[in-house]
């Protein structure tokens, strides 16, 4: 069986370094917000080309903390509207709802799966104050157009970069990585991400000194100084041991992303089947292929066929957010492009540990379908 994502194989190469980090961690006697978190924050900020990185509990809370900070700064008010793609993973929308803001769903582009900038203006009202951009499946959204719209309407931009570690707008320079433009970004380090820890983890990166200051307090009960609470905060701190593991893996991120692109280029060049729609890719570094997502009108049939031939696949995601029971108020809305995407997408195996032979086998089986 060719696994969709062989997590054990991905992490096997780091086991010795992980054990060394674990021993150091045990000997340190400091288990929360210690040197390992600070070290990772410094290194990831440098990797992203930003001034600040704040390690937090997970990707959802990274987004929540950005919105909470903007509320504290008075740049957002409860009840404000936030533009968000209709086909995102539900966490993006949950972060808006959990901070008493109002999500306004906008259709994506069918070829990129990302927010369609041409549809944003029609959804802007006097209550619209922000755009939550999601770089879905590892591909950057059209930030030049979105940036222009945001400036024209004086809107904040927040980036959900949970799947886009290391994506670039153009050819990378040294230490020049996502986030794009000067907007805060939320990252997830869920184990299967391009940069994943061995549990939950997340981070906010930003160039905004004030935002950095408030988020650091908000993640720690709203406290900058022990037992002195300036904000209604939460407990969302990146674990010291997870930060240590991430520090071990971070130096390989760029190489891992390049391996993903190489696999994607083979898929794009060699899969020849008119029953399968391949994803859009312009060949640049704006895509890190967290997922390689195809479309087919007979998804169940194709997924079953691949399983019979020893190839594991996944669906990202089977139910669009506006059809989820949790979002009852959106259930009556119609988003035809989003619904088409969610009914047709299928994710092929994609990871830096896939072998050339495995990739060849996947291509062969797909071409014989």
What is the structure about, briefly put?
The chain has 369 residues and is α/β, with parallel strands linked by helices.
The Rg value, from CA coordinates, equals 21 Å
Please give the CATH class of the largest domain.
Answer: Alpha Beta
Q: Helical region count? A: 12
The CATH homologous superfamily of the largest domain is named Type I PLP-dependent aspartate aminotransferase-like (Major domain)
Query: Would you report the number of β strands?
Result: 11
What is the H/E string? HHHEHEHEEHEEEHEEHHEHHEH
Largest sheet: 7 strands, mixed
Distance between the termini: 18 Å
Catalogue the unreliable spans.
171-179
Average of per-residue pLDDT values:
95
Helical amount:
25-40%
Q: Which topology of the largest domain does CATH recognise?
A: Aspartate Aminotransferase, domain 2
Instruction: Choose one word for the global shape.
Output: globular
Which architecture of the largest domain per CATH? 3-Layer(aba) Sandwich
Kindly give the count of domains: 2
């Amino acid at each position: 069986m060719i696994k969709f994502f062989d997590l054990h194989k991905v992490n096997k190469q780091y086991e010795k370094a992980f054990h060394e980090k674990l021993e150091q961690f045990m000997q340190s006697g400091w288990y929360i917000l210690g040197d390992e978190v600070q070290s990772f924050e410094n290194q990831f900020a440098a990797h992203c080309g930003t001034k600040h990185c704040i390690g937090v509990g997970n990707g959802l809370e990274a987004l929540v903390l950005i919105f909470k900070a903007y509320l504290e700064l008075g740049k957002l008010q409860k009840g404000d509207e936030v533009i968000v793609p209709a086909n995102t993973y539900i966490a993006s929308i949950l972060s808006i709802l959990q901070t008493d803001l109002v999500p306004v769903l906008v259709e994506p582009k069918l070829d990129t799966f990302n927010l369609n900038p041409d549809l944003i203006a029609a959804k802007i009202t006097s209550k619209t104050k922000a755009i939550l951009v999601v770089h879905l499946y590892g591909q950057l959204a059209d930030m030049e157009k979105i940036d222009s719209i945001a400036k024209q309407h004086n809107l904040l931009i927040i980036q959900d970069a949970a799947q886009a570690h290391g994506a670039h707008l153009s050819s990378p320079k040294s230490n020049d990585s996502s986030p794009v433009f000067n907007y805060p970004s939320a990252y997830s380090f869920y184990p299967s991400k391009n940069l994943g820890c061995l549990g939950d983890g997340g981070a906010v990166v930003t160039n905004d000194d004030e935002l950095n200051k408030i988020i650091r307090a908000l993640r720690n009960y709203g406290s900058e100084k022990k037992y002195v609470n300036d904000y209604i905060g939460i407990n969302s701190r990146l674990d010291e041991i997870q930060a240590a593991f991430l520090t071990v893996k971070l130096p390989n991120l760029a190489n891992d992303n390049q391996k993903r692109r190489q696999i994607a280029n083979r898929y794009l060049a060699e899969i020849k089947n008119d029953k399968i729609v391949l994803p859009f890719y312009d060949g640049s570094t704006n895509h890190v292929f967290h997922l390689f997502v195809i479309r087919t009108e007979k998804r169940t049939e194709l997924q079953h066929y691949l399983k019979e031939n020893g190839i594991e696949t996944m669906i990202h995601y089977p139910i669009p957010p506006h059809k989820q029971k949790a979002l009852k108020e959106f259930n009556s809305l119609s988003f035809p492009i989003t619904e088409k995407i969610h009914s047709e997408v299928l994710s092929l195996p994609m990871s830096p540990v896939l072998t050339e032979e495995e990739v060849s086998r996947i291509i062969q089986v797909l071409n014989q379908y």
